[in-house]
Amino acid sequence: MKFLAKLRRNEEGATAIEYGLIAALIAVAAIAALQGMGSQLTSTFNKTSSAMGTTTS
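^ thats the sequence. predicted structure below, dont judge the formating
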């Protein structure tokens, strides 16, 4: 009986789960933001590459 009462009061597992959920949410937000910027970065790199290829030495 004491074991069950002690187990109910133990919140360490819940805290670890909460931190895991927060980390997962941050990862999803970062992935979404990077995907949105992906096409812009591709365009910028292509323009830079074209400009570097047309310069004369």
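Residues 12-53 form the longest helix (42 residues).
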